Amino acid sequence: MDTKLYETLIAGNAAALREFATRDLAAFLQVTTEGDNVLHVTAKYNLMVKTAAIIENPSLKSLVNQKNSKGDTPLHVAARMGSFETAEIFVNCANSGEIEAGERVTKMVNQVNDTALHDAARNGHFRIVELLIKVDCELPTLLNDAGESPLFIAVDKRHLHIALLILKDAPDFSFAGRNDMNALHAAVIRSQDEVLRLSSYMVKLKSPMTYLTNMSFKHSFKFSSFGPSAIIEAAFQNNIYRDFAKLLLEKCERALYEADEFGWTPLYYSIHFGAFGIFKVFLDKVDSSIAHKRDKRGMTITHIAAREGEDAILELLAYKFPEIWDLQDYEGQTPFHLAVERGKLACVKFILGIGLSHDGLINQQDNKGNTALHLAAIHGNNQKIFDLLIKDGRVDKTARNNEGLTVIDIILLKEYGYYEKTWVTMSLASNGGLESLEHSINKNGRKTRSSFTMPGGYKSDGGPEAGMAILSRKTAFRVFVVANALAFCFSTTSMFLHYCRSFVEKLDVHAFYTYLTTMLTSYGITAMVIAFVSGTYAALADTPGLAKAVLSIGCSFFGLQLVVYLK
């Protein structure tokens, strides 16, 4: 685009622009490096007088429909930037019939299939949305490449005033959104206050003590300013979105039954985020078909409530849909498993206390054979849950999982402190817990592993040679055994002489002992290297290349030893 023309567009007046057009009209057909024509530029800065002056020229009216390199028309730019007056000029020009017949400018899409209404809704420009719906009532039904409708975008961006406008003024509209979500999904998710949601997530990244010890007074003051205002705003926001969800359901109750790409309906998200007000609105509308619905992992709404620790929601679900109380997901886990695994004490107490929880549910094993008590021992998220389970007479403390481990076995294998491990295992044992037979045998020495690892291992088959070394007939192995014995003798004798030297007072005898210990230590090191090289060589006999490499590396020690002795 001509530099002088661009300067006139930005800094000049309409008269100067008309004068420039009389001199060089062809310059108005030029574009920038991004493909923007003169109307794209005036739309960016909402230069309505200059826009009108350009469109006055019949030769330039077609620029209203011209797209830039991203497929945006000047109307797209005006809608995105909030240039209402300029957008109104474009719409009026397109509807005047003075432009050659073709696609209506309001329905023209860019490279991602966004119309001007998509851009206006995304950026929160209420007046432009109102204008576009008035001139083209079909726009709210159109979707972009991501599958998003203008209504979904408005809700997703938290522009509820625009969403309400679409619901009120548009005769028809789409609820559709990206990833198979709809506007009701977006409403539930956006009902959460972002400050509170992110703060709860950030606290999980570090322990509270880390924040207290490393936070300065200035930072403490800054963070404290979020607290009261965020809580008040969150309460106000929840009421607004609850009423908005009611309105969406009145317009399209079917949206409550639609699942996204994860298999989650809006009801799932209301439970996941603990949006109790919205959940109660949904609960009045749902039937047993949605209660039995499973997500991609086989979870029902009761699984989600238990996993997230929403005991109040779990209670409502238990009494409204008792038939789904003991359903298992695709990993074989019940809501009770998930509540215990996540350490949700209130949900665990409720499940244990409700009459629907029979012994079979409490002791149900998942696909790995783990009961809820196994998971409490494995994850250790909440000691109170563990204590609650071992004191409950209905809980089976002797159940074995697919690895053959009881709860006591798991506790003994975990890295607890001595006193903590002793206390937990004794508590389990006193409440009926048992160690597996296999682990009892191991501790009594019947199946103990050798404390000395022999190269190649031992013969385990029956016969007179059972327990003998497999490589005992190989020369390299015999060298290993002899060298290993010599290394032990030399090093032990050296240590004994070093000990005896402490009782010697004569300097000449003291020097003699020092000489002997130094010599024996040197011999012990040499024997140890020989034992290592020969043992490794014997074990790697089937891979001669690797065995020779180890032999070469080991022998390099003797070269180093020779250099030291010669110096």
UniProtKB/TrEMBL annotation:
Residue ranges crossing the lipid bilayer per the database entry: 479-500, 512-540, 546-566
Pfam families xrefs: Ank_2, PGG
Protein localization: Membrane
Keywords from the UniProt entry: ANK repeat, Membrane, Repeat, Transmembrane, Transmembrane helix
GO CC aspect terms: plasma membrane
Main location: membrane
ANK repeat residue numbers: 70-92, 112-134, 331-355, 368-393
Membrane topology: Multi-pass membrane protein
PGG domain sequence ranges: 450-538
Keyword Ribonucleoprotein recorded: no
Protein name stated in the entry: Ankyrin repeat family protein
